[in-house]
């Protein structure tokens, strides 16, 4: 246990990475002062619930599992909410923060960056281009929820429509959720099928079919070029696709991916690439400054970013031990991701993108309507990843044991 005096351990952010690090550190050290600085209000929510909340008729407020003040009290953390960290000085071990128009310097003993990621925005023309929304935070979901729930009843008896840009994991989850909530859904993507970066083609085809059966209108191999306010018809916007097709919608959701938020780190001269570079102990290129979560690019993951829940839980435990005085190298276990598409549940343990190998379907699942199983085998014959769909998802444990992380 450390001395209670002196500057605190400062954690920047109030997402899963920040709060989990605070919780794990507090378990190991009851006395160390911990200060959490975040530009949002600090309320704790599970971000994965954002893409299945419409179907469950859950309001944004209902997604908050613990209010910020209660989190801070339970964990003995000093919370600086609505406070932007604008710069940091790693030599002087201080942060500059802005709150309510005032700027001040905060000292730290150790610093943890848990600044998350930004949704990528693709350029678009048209007078309604600014109406495109992205959801990577509860506040974003609040805006989308407000837009959809404020729509007047449709004039043509047809459901309100949402145009989803991006047929990856988040786009497909929202498509499934919005359909379940009664919206018509169009999905546009330049790829040839859903989750193209993650799934073997046959598994992607199962998902494409399952969501189409539910009502998704797919637009593959195209992009949205312009978005205009509609002047006629029953919907608010008209999107024009690169093949000339027009798509009418009442809201437009962009889900084309995330980019790690490295702004603070890069400005302070820390080494960054696709994320803030961290070594096996989660330390950045500056001594005493650590990073984890969606903002980090992990040496322990072969130089990957891993924007998922399980990597954060593992990273936060290792980091807390290091912060508490027991240097602990992060070793990631295999961390399959469950894709929340109830039309066809999917579990993916993706191989490292640099791994050479092939996907093959488990022959026992060929032709089964209730789902399939695929393994990714490397050049040495080792299983390095897998995909399970439908009822085969129940074999997650068994397949995880057979897969080298
Ligand atoms: C819709 C959706 C569904 C998902 N579903 C799943 C799923 O099913 N399974 C799964 O494993 N993963 C899922 N994910 C991914 C997972 O939720 C994220 O990996 C995780 O929540 C990221 O947490 P984080 O703390 O790293 O980042 P964030 O939650 O983005 O937190 C970043 C924090 O940093 C603060 N911040 C940033 N810059 C500053 C600054 N300069 N000053 C002060 N504060 C700052 C922000 O306000 C915020 O509080 C999903 C993601 C989304 C968007």
Any overview of this molecule?
The chain has about 400 residues and is an alpha/beta fold. It has three domains: about 180 residues, FAD/NAD(P)-binding domain, CATH 3.50.50; about 130 residues, 3-Layer(bba) Sandwich (FAD/NAD(P)-binding domain), CATH 3.50.50.60; about 55 residues, Enolase-like, domain 1 (2-Layer Sandwich), CATH 3.30.390. Helices cover about 20% and strands about 30% of the residues. The chain has a five-stranded parallel sheet with strand order 5-2-1-9-20. It starts with 8 loop residues before the first strand and ends with a helix.
Based on the structure given, which CATH architecture of the largest domain is correct? 3-Layer(bba) Sandwich
Number of helices: 8
CATH classification, class level of the largest domain: Alpha Beta
Which superfamily, in CATH terms, is the homologous superfamily of the largest domain?
FAD/NAD(P)-binding domain
Small-molecule components bound: flavin-adenine dinucleotide
Q: Which outline best applies?
A: globular
Mean pLDDT: 96
Kindly summarize this structure in a few lines.
The protein is α/β, with parallel strands linked by helices.
